[in-house]
Amino acid sequence: MSKERVAYVNGKIVPESRAVVSIRDRGFLQGDAVFDTTRTFGHKIFMLNEHLDRFFDSLKYMRIDPGMSKSEFARVTMEVLEANLPLIGDDDDYWVSQRVTRGVRVGGEELPTVVVECLPLPFDARAKYYRDGIPVIVPSVRRTPPDSQSPRAKVHNYVNLVQAELEARSQNPDAWPILLDTNGNLAEGPGSNIFIVKDGMAVTPREQFVLSGISRRVTIELAHELGIDVREADIDLFDAYTADEVFVTSTSFCICPVSSVNGSPISDGSVPGPVTDRLTKAYSGMVGIDVAAQYLARLEE
Ligand code: PLP
Which atom of ligand 1 is found nearest the CA of 214? Predict the structure, then answer.
């Protein structure tokens, strides 16, 4: 059995070491590309259709024609995943991504580059955040505003978010950045949406200023089902510092508690708070895996 993961590149499934992109590719040269990422839970893919819908919205926004339909992406994604699943243990799971760049100009035509690939989730590195909570730092760099480049599209150009990460990590290597939007309200981090909880009500930034995270949508739906009041609104740093609970949502984390914002502890700093805990348990019930336990088990190994 091959020990190397495979990836799909432009019509062929090849070992990752042979999955290459041209140095003339617009995705490499200009970050001119679109992607989406879901994950597996217990080796089963999560909400592939919802991720592909968002992927196609991002492609439409960027005016890139991938030359493949959603159902073709679904078929290729399952083929790549199934080829890679034997390479991970029962307790591991994959991130599963589709990527399309504007590609390479051949003659007068730009031919898109299409990639589908899997990467094991970083359970070991992130397990401590479920025990201790995430220390969030709000960097000086602001999230790109919708009138410059819509944060609702999931594009390869992450430099704005990378700058935020560099600034946060230079203060605390374990910290995660959450950027403000250009109005001074909390927006999002690289790969995560944010919620605060105050007096039992969960609030998350409005969709115009952030990516519509699939985990954010799931969390809002679960809150409705649990009878937890949830709304989208502007949240500023005062709201964050005085919140009873803060948590982030993302494909990899699902729901993960935040322990502090800019060094200021959320409530007494212990995690998870009761609303975060209820939502995390409901999330776990929905995906059929205890999402916090899957991370926490790595601390005991
Ligand atoms: N915000 C940004 C900028 C992201 O890149 C992501 C995901 O990668 C998210 C939020 C969370 O989205 P999802 O829950 O679909 O992973």
Answer: 15
Residue 11, pLDDT score: 97
Instruction: Just give the CATH number of 6-121.
Output: 3.30.470.10
Predicted pLDDT of residue 105: 84
CA distances from residue 164 to 63, 138, 142, 151, 168 in whole angstroms, order as listed: 27, 8, 8, 15, 6
Q: What is the tens place of the pLDDT at every residue in 142-161?
A: 999 999 999 999 999 999 99
What is the reported pLDDT for 92?
97
The verdict on the CB of residue 204 being under 6 Å from ligand 1 is no
- Closest CA relative to residue 138, chosen from 93, 63, 194: 194
The confidence score (pLDDT) of residue 125 equals 96
- For residue 88, report the distance from its CA to the centre of ligand 1, in Å: 24
User: Superfamily for 125-296?
Assistant: D-amino Acid Aminotransferase, subunit A, domain 2 (3.20.10.10)
d(CA 199, CA 144): 31
Is residue 216 in contact with ligand 1, taking CB distance under 6 Å? Answer: yes
Confidence (pLDDT) at 145: 96
C-alpha to C-alpha distance for 104 and 149, rounded to whole angstroms: 23
Q: How far is the CA of 1 from the centre of ligand 1 (A)?
A: 34
58 ligand 1 Cβ < 6 A: no
**Rounded to two decimals, what is the model's pTM?**
0.97
Low-confidence stretches of the chain (pLDDT beneath 70): 1-2
**Separation between Cα atoms, residue 52 and residue 200, nearest integer Å:** 33
For residues 214 and 249, give the distance between their C-alpha atoms in angstroms, rounded to a whole number.
9
Q: Tell me what pLDDT residue 2 has.
A: 61
For the Cβ of 38 lying below 6 angstroms from any atom of ligand 1, the answer is no
Domain boundaries, the chain: 6-121, 125-296
